[in-house]
Amino acid sequence: MLLEKVEAKMNYNFREIEAKWQKYWAKNQTFKASNQSDKPKFYGLSMFPYPSGAGLHVGHPLGYIANDIYSRYKRHKGFNVLHPMGYDSFGLPAEQYAIQTGQHPAVTTEVNIKRYREQLDQLGFSFDWSREVRTSDPKYYKWTQWVFIQLFDSWYNQKTDKAEDIHGLISFFEKEGNANIQAACDDDTPDFSAEEWASFSEKTKQEVLLKYRLTYLADTEVNWCPALGTVLANDEIVNGVSERGGHPVIRKKMTQWSMRITAYAQRLLDGLDTVDWPQPLKDSQTNWIGRSEGASVTFKVKEHDANIEVFTTRPDTIFGASFMTLAPEHELVSQITTPEQKEAIDAYMEATAKRSERDRMADVKTISGVFTGAYAEHPFTKEPVPIWIGDYVLASYGTGAVMAVPCGDQRDYDFAKHYNIPIPNIFEGVDISEEAFADKENTVIANSDFLDGLSYKDAVKKVIEALEQIGQGEGKINYRLRDAVFSRQRYWGEPFPVYYVNGMPQMIALEHLPLELPEVEKYLPTETGEPPLGNATHWAWDAKNNKVVSNEMLSQVQHDGHSELDSESHEGVYPLELNTMPGWAGSSQYFNRYMDPHNDEAIYSQEAINYWQDVDLYIGGSEHATGHLLYSRFWQKFLFDKGVATKDEFAKKLINQGMITGTSAFVYKDLDSNTLFSKGLKEGKNVIPVHADVSLVNASDELDVEAFKKWQPEYKDAEFVLEDGKYIVGREIEKMSKSKYNVVNPDAICEEYGADSLRLYEMFLGPLEQSKPWNTAGITGVHSFLKKMWKLYDAIEESEPTAENLKTLHKTIKKVEEDIENFSFNTSVSTFMICVNELTAQKCKSKSILEPLAILVSPYAPHIAEELWERLGHNESIAEAPFPIFKEKYLVESTKEYPISFNGKLRFKLELPLDMGKDEIEAAVMAHEKTHAQLQGREPKKVIVVPGKIVNIVG
RNA sequence: GCCUUGGUGGCGGAAUUGGUAGACGCGCUGGAUUCAAAAUCCAGUUCUUUCGGGAGUGUGGGUUCGAUUCCCACCCAAGGUACCA
User: Which residue is nearest to nucleotide B25 (CA to C1')?
Assistant: First the structure.
């Protein structure tokens, strides 16, 4: 009895310890951040998760652990730390589940969040849960709706290069029309004078303003899936059919809200230079924005009152343009096609319309096109230029039309060859009989009138000047980036704070927000094809009383379009927007809301943002490169323009954690019989590999045969051919996924080894940014390290540390501090192991060594550190204990074991005093018997001596 | 095709400014302890070797007294992107 008790005290009982400290942290609010502090601030943020029904697997917490370590470290370093967590809780899976089961998404979301919270708590994170946000919480999405309204009330002034209040634009219009305004606006914005503006009806004014607002309503082509009754995002479509169910998808024009992110294209590009983000991520944003410099050129169409505008990056080759190509969807096609060509053109347009965008992209080798019969006029030579249509020109890029220069562009070249169109050569000394010449650097222009003899750069400059002179072009920068469609025909998303009067959108005032999601019977689209919110019976806006009312109250004028029938009693009730916002709406400002999450008066107070400013360290997956991270930067810049945010980039440093891949296990089934061969016996047999659940396999790749039979009853009676009495499985690295049965659940690992072991092991696997395979077997290494460390604190003494003890401690402090600052968490774990191994060998019991060691370990393995800290006699949490200070003096050595190399190869080592000079070292080495043995009588050509480092003898 | 990142033992990986390649851990081998197992501890573990040594960081070159590290060319893998005019 007594013996058991003693043993229990000595053993590392991680289950008890971890539960104890998790409770302590929660009860004492150890990690609650204050918005008032004299300390410097540190804001460490991990991307908040979508709470899925499957829960976390070991790959998910990797970034959280890293950020938790860094944040805890900063706390030890005297920073006031903000380390929050929340949930991106609007989203598709909950809605799909609701459609299938009828359960309200809010209910399933709540259940999933609870499960997530349990799993997160179990890992011992230092999150300030008092600041939790949920995007689906009306108190939170009130502010998502608020940002939307701010965007609606703003336009982008290109002269001041920032977003400004829409009222300023209206006064411009009133004073001088829109001629002198440089603004981000729709391409089809008409020119008008102040008088014309004044004469516009209220509705026309609103329509014009929509062309300038930073969020606007417009007809947009979307991917509509009739079978699913919804629009799909591009990534939800695979090979032209829906990812879910494989239903056909068509392009459909729908009135949708869009975000004028293109207004910020250049600033989004420039801002990348100011942040410490991974290069691949910056590159993919740069590519996505797709800036290209060139010129826009206007070609007049002969015999028509029409112009074709093209964008080209090679205006210098304009004299080589021998035809033009329009996208088949180009608006001028039907207008300019001659009667003789009409039949061919119609047939071609019909054929292209049938092909999906994806088919067209996939099939790049087939050259196809049709001549319209029309000609454009070359701006300089005035020669006729035949106008073709061809599906190699995309309607969605540039102007949907190109001036084709076959000698300088391979696609134009191929097209010209295929249809026997002339290929004039405008390059000096270049052979174009085989292929086009696209080398800008070595370009010398010829046969080009006033451009002859010029280089690419000079010719571009000169031709743009000439185009401007004749009013047929100008220098232009084109972006690939499109405005972002912001409407979704979904239920489980933020409602737009919008109602419609005479078809024009009106914003609901801030004091009446949030506009809460209505209850619906069904989560599917209505029979008339309206979004799920069309099923709501209580979804109309009473603009007089500012509240949501029953649809029955809708004004007659809205109902059937006859204003004279407007019902008196129901006046001022209007329909509400039926679309909801996309998934990225709620995540585009959450990082700022954490600064002041319970503020009901503002998205956050100015005091809060003045103190916290921006995120110091943001960790999350690289899959958000062109979604969340681009949209968030856009909203941040907008709020910066409005003076709401203090920084125009929200995150100083960003790290993409690598993916943790699974190590799948395979059994080998004989093709002809129900026989399973162990891995070593499958050679020469006709077998197929079958996935086995990784939880049925031990560290030595042995399969638990009985458990396997139980798991897959079809193998209940199978014959297992063993080797040495064991069934050995094959292993392969694959993406961690349910279907591959290689998902490893953190709960089971915490149960068997503890959260501290899991945290250490995830870090120990390798560099944070790299993708790396998971193999649970290796966790025993870090687990026995913790046991060894625990043992070290068995009998703590107040004794003086030895010089050796101090050296071990201080080299550990130095290395761990450097590692954390460099986000090299894997190497710190090794350093801890070395330190504990050394102190164990030294039989160190000194409190003055073991106390700082506990602090060093605490960011990584916080539970054991707290427990040891308490055993060292402290009553307060270790969380705020100051980080140990490294002292160089303990590492100073008097001698050095010099590596002695011959021709760069190490041959032997020689211990010499460190204060020995160059010549003395050389003399000592040359006198050594092993040197003579190496040289075998040869005279060395040269002796390199780097004191304190190395000796190298050449010869 | 283009852009990016990477390539080191059986495996994960280390070597931070060019200076002892393979730290640390897994696995494996042998041993101790145990009735036995687990756990723990000790020793070994890049390859090769005639036991002196020799070779070695994707391949081939280069710079250097010295290269995993810097330069050039190429190969392979992963991720992103693609008829972008």
Answer: A781
CA distance A670 to A683: 11
Query: What is the distance in angstroms measured between the alpha-carbon CA of A916 and the sugar C1' of B43?
Result: 37
Residue A335: which residues within 8 A CB-CB, separation 6 or more? A304, A306
Query: Quick check: ipTM above 0.90?
Result: yes
**Is residue A698 over pLDDT 50?**
yes
- Residue partners of A524: CB distance under 8 A and separation at least 6: A99, A229, A532, A535
Nearest to A872 by CA among A857, A850, A840, A844: A850
CA of A29 to C1' of B20 (A): 50
Residues recorded for chain A? 955
What pLDDT, on a 0 to 100 scale, did the predictor assign at position A907? 79
Angle (nearest 5°) at CA A454 between A449 and A458: 110
| DSSP code for A435 | S
Length A314 CA → B1 C1' (Å): 20
CA torsion through residues A341, A344, A347, A352, sign: negative
Least confident of A130-144, A219-233, A540-554, A750-764: A219-233
Instruction: Write the CA distances from A436 to A82, A213, A361, A447, integer angstroms.
Output: 58, 43, 22, 16
Nucleotide with C1' nearest the A391 CA = B83
Q: Are strands A401-404 and A384-390 parallel, antiparallel or unpaired?
A: unpaired
Residue with tokens 């009013």: A471
Tokens read off for A602: 């503002």
Distance CA A450, CA A47 (A): 57
Pick the CATH number of A893-954 from 3.40.710.10, 3.30.365.10, 3.50.50.60, 3.10.20.590: 3.10.20.590
Q: Which amino acid, one-letter code, is at A317?
A: T
H or E element: which one contains A799? none
Distance (Å) from CA A766 to C1' B39?
28
> Shortest CA–C1' contact from A701: which nucleotide?
B27
Q: Which nucleotides of B are covered by protein (CB under 7 A)?
A: 3-5, 11-16, 19-21, 23-28, 39-41, 54-55, 65-67, 78-85
Residue A456's CB is within 10 A of a number of other CB atoms, namely 17
Rg (CA), chain A: 35
Say which nucleotide is closest to residue A830, CA to C1' distance. Answer: B24
SS (H, E, C) A901-924: EECCEEEEEEEEECCCCHHHHHHH
Round to whole Å and give the CA distance between A268 and A262.
9
Residue A775: closest CA among A826, A831, A731, A730: A731
Mean pLDDT of A299-317: 92
| Residue A470, number of CB atoms within 10 A of its CB | 10
Q: What's the CATH architecture for A291-479? A: Alpha-Beta Complex (3.90)
Residue A303 has pLDDT above 70, yes or no: yes
Q: What is the pLDDT of residues A72-87, one digit of tens each?
A: 999 999 999 999 999 9
Q: First and final CA of chain A: distance in angstroms?
A: 73
Is the domain defined by A37-135+584-656 classed in CATH 3.40.50.2300? no
